[in-house]
Amino acid sequence: MAESSSVIPTPLLKDELDIVIPTIRNLEFLEMWRPYLSPYHLIIVQDASCISFKDSACRCFGYMVSKKKYIFTIDDDCFVAKDPSGKDINALEQHIKNLLCPATPFFFNTLYDPYREGADFVRGYPFSLREGVPTAVSHGLWLNIPDYDAPTQLVKPHERNSSGHGMSFPENAVTAACESASIHILFQFMSLAFSAA
After folding, report:
1. Which family, according to the similarity comment (predicted)?
2. Is position 169 within any domain?
């Protein structure tokens, strides 16, 4: 009987993706992400007070340092989410698949993702738009929590998040991925604090 050899698939975009992580904490949080991040090149911007003071805008330095075609960024307080069965969710892989799949920003398809296996466009969807356009940003959200400002969150504690196609929205780069050519979409203005002496 021949032995079966398990072939480990090459991670998507392995040589084309940098992972930018801004942090003011120790690096222990990376351990939970090891199975997903280890094949990739990490750019960790740790407490870069010369860029911004103790906030995630220091990720912009990581954006500038990156030489890869794609960038994924994740905050140091993001935990690996679990699906309803308790299995870990590979958020990085989901972002990469989103980037590699066309977007449909000009016309909403009621089946949501017409490019997933087994799905299609609904009747009436214009044939001229079915090719889609390159996805500029894969935007992560807080798990089941809308990214409200504090007062709104207090008055709507039970509301859950959703988003629509082709809509403008405030971007929070807690988890996000994009092609480097589109980095201006994710680039956050660096906050500089000046104090009078």
Report:
1. Belongs to the RGP family.
2. yes
